[in-house]
Specification:
Layout (H helix, E strand, L loop, with lengths): L2 H19 L2 H8 L6 H10 L5 H11 L5 H8 L14 H9 L8 H18 L12 H11 L4 H23 L2 H7 L4 E7 L4 E2 L4 E8 L2 E9 L5 E2 L10 E7 L1 H7 L9 E7 L6 E2 L2 E4 L2 E4 L4
Parallel strand pairs: 1-8, 1-9
Antiparallel strand pairs: 1-2, 1-5, 3-4, 3-6, 6-7, 9-10
The structure holds 1-(2,5-dioxo-2,5-dihydro-1H-imidazol-4-yl)urea (2AL).
1-(2,5-dioxo-2,5-dihydro-1H-imidazol-4-yl)urea (2AL) binds next to helix 6.
Length: 296
């Protein structure tokens, strides 16, 4: 077998093992962003350990069929309207944004048509229009919305339940995928420092991440460069759009290697767009000059 496929399978098996062995409160927090129905969560916890991801997903699907009307209403209240981007840094908001990536916010006609459809749907059924958005374009969702507007409440109920099941199982599968796990364990902003005078990475440099908060700056993350000069876990996994600042303790670094410097610290301010998956902001540093760029 291809070595990388083999590696992926091993990482997948390890994630499942962690899921099987984790304390129940931890698993509750893990499952809640997939589907906030306490009974569903407890049924999955009670059915551990799972021998495979498939058997976990089958149990998750089964426990979501059927929902009581109260469960359905409760779970629906978490979902933003199609066309309205979720805000915030929670796992739920981040998954919703990625599911709805088929909606182009820059296309005013589609956004307006969705808003109008949502309004008509809510007026008729008294709840948010729900559809599994992952893998669907805005056009496809608009077509489904218009078609479902013709349903009676009795016809619509099982359709909504099925969409909720699909969203829940897809989210669970995604949260347990090695790729997603890796992506989530790297912070939204990462950095590395190259000491260009020494021609090697600058290790052991303290780095702080700040977010602009009105007129002030609040510290939201800290780290220290590793032997490769890198910091991979510098604060939150997701940042909201805004201005951010990286501050490097360059004075202490140069003092530590007995090198005079002009820079007691270096501060870089940059803009983050929350729709961008990752920012790498390197520092090319020497005692009397530095530069930076938006890396990848
Ligand atoms: C959503 C959402 O945020 N993700 C998804 O698949 N569906 N919202 C909705 N109203 O259907």
């Amino acid at each position: 077998m291809d070595a990388s496929i083999e590696q992926l399978r091993t990482r997948q098996a390890m994630l499942l093992e962690q899921f099987n062995a984790a304390p129940a409160p931890e698993v509750r927090e893990f499952l809640k962003p997939c589907l906030d129905v306490p009974r569903w969560i407890e049924e999955i916890i009670a059915a551990r350990p799972f021998a495979s991801l498939d058997s976990l997903l089958a149990t998750a699907r089964g426990a979501a069929d059927p929902f009581t009307p109260a469960e359905l209403e409760g779970a629906l209240s978490h979902h933003p309207r199609i066309g309205e981007k979720a805000t915030g840094r929670s796992a739920e908001a981040s998954m919703s944004r990625s599911e709805q990536s088929g909606v182009d916010q820059q296309d005013p006609d589609t956004v307006a048509a969705l808003a109008e459809g949502n309004r008509a749907y809510e007026e008729k059924f008294g709840r948010v229009f729900l559809i599994r958005a992952a893998g669907r374009s805005a056009e496809e969702m608009l077509t489904a919305l218009r078609q479902r507007l013709g349903h009676t409440p009795e016809q619509e109920e099982p359709v909504v339940a099925e969409q909720l099941r699909e969203i829940a199982t897809l989210r669970l599968e995604q949260r347990l995928s090695p790729e997603e796990h890796e992506r989530m364990s790297v912070s939204h902003v990462t950095t590395h420092i190259l000491d260009t005078a020494a021609g090697k990475p600058a290790a052991g440099v303290a780095v702080e991440l700040y977010a602009r908060d009105g007129e002030a700056w609040s510290q939201i993350g800290t780290g220290t460069t590793d032997a490769d000069g890198r910091v991979k876990d510098l604060g939150p996994e997701r940042l909201q759009s805004g201005s951010y600042r990286l501050q490097f303790a360059t004075g202490a670094y140069f003092a530590g290697i007995g090198q005079e410097t002009f820079f007691p610290e270096v501060s870089l301010t940059f803009t983050v767009d929350e729709n961008e998956s990752h920012y790498h902001v390197p520092l090319l540093l020497s005692p009397f000059a530095f530069s930076t760029y938006r890396g990848s």
